[in-house]
Amino acid sequence: MIAVEVRSFSFLKGYPVETSVHGGGFVFDCRCIKNPGQVDHLKPLTGRDGPVADYLLTETDMPAFLLEIQAILKRSITSYLKSGYDSLSVSFGCTGGQHRSLYAAEQTEKWLLQEFKDKVTVVKNHREFPE
């Protein structure tokens, strides 16, 4: 079993602090994705909201970006399970930690739980927009 911490954060406030015993993990920069925060009616929303999700799915490269990340995570988690590692951090950053990174973290959590079912536990942490 691997404990995966999935985080979103704002690069403006710095990288998240690594808390696992072994350290390590991934930090993905979502600033390469078109920013829904620059669209007036989406600005007050977050990556948890339907209109932001719709925008990211239809107006940006987010779907392809997430598929590439999933391939990396699948390779790593499969290897970690064989090696006996017990933790991994996966962080997503963007300018404000509100739209792109939060959405990516939410989708990654869902994918991990579906792809690895009883092989991972997921702890989610949205540093700028906690639940």
From TrEMBL:
It holds the Pfam family PapZ_C. Residues 3-128 form the RapZ C-terminal domain. InterPro entries: RapZ-like, RapZ_C. One of its GO terms (molecular function) is ATP binding. This is Nucleotide-binding protein YvcJ. It comes from Dyadobacter helix.
